[in-house]
Amino acid sequence: MWRSAASVAGVKRLMSSSSSSRGRIAAVWGNGDFGRLGHGGLDSQWRPKPLVFLNDVASVSCGGAHTLFLTESGKVYATGLNDYGQLGIPDDKMYTVEPTLVPGLPEGIVQICAGYYHSCAITADGGLYMWGKNTSGQLGLGKKASEVVSVPTKVECLTGISVKTAALGSDHSIAVTEEGSALSWGGGGAGRLGHELKTIFGILSSNSEYTPRLIKNLEGMKVKKVAAGMMHSACIDENGSVFFFGEKALSKLGFSARKDAATPSMVAELPCSEDVVCGGYHTCVITSGGELYTWGSNENGCLGTGSTNVFHQPERVEGPFLRSPVSKVSCGWKHTAAISDGRVFTWGWGGANGTFSEEGHSSGGQLGHGDDVDYTVPVMVSFDSPVRALHVSCGFNHTGAILECGEA
Asked: Taking 50 as the threshold, does the pLDDT of residue 367 lie above it?
């Protein structure tokens, strides 16, 4: 809840000065280390705080310790940690504390995504630009590319192929083309790329792909959504079927009959699905009817089921979502956020040890409830001003949302 008069004044100023964006603003909260919240300092925010540095923001993507913003005019801004060039700023700044324009991108960016240490942007004509950490080939720029690429660089091997959407994980990347083909690249540990592992005389030769590679087992399907987590990935085809690949360790993601799945397998227990997202070790799916299902590791209650029990199969999240459908969902390391009827709900891990925090002090707040308590069920995030949530994104231990201001 925005308690300060300055915060409320900031919202009103943004509303009056941004008629073209219909009063859209970004609010970011949680761990403030390295300036990832973009508020001009390193302080953590226990409740949502409006971002006053941008007034035509269209979307937000929260990564490991950095955040990307896309404006309605197609420009990309970045804030936070820059130790691997993930901000795309061509200087030696270790971090920035407020959104800084990412140079070197063409006009008209339509989509952004922040991974743990890398970032990407997609142009209106389907061009893919990537930057940041590249130690496992997660930028898709080829084996000779530098391990750190600090400026946006076009993935030239995809020239002539239109990329529709992309998802970035810890050190791997997945994309869908306009035709519905799924491509993956980067670190392939635990099978998270969806490819058969490479072996020579029965010995694993490499688990990395340095350029985008077609996921053969999804060939012939039209994929519409992809998601990338820490050690696993997922996608949805045009029929609403969910496919899962990567780590399936019993203690984390279930599927007790198998440890890992190097090729995609369908999650048969789900109804027709519209969206899928992956967190650290948990997964969320929104069905065509607006129902939310979760499964996987349930540390700190990140599944929203009312307990911390591991679920090996999809379990429906009920509570407030029995009354109104879920339209958006996002997973962090061990917390989750969703939008239902224009309201933001969060649950899971509430605290974190901050790099700059005093010893014994938790600098969390990624749930936005004003404390560092774990919540095992969805709890609505409160705002002082009348807002309607349009988009939400979870990072490692921070959260961002796009809000439309208006009368109650």
From this structure: yes
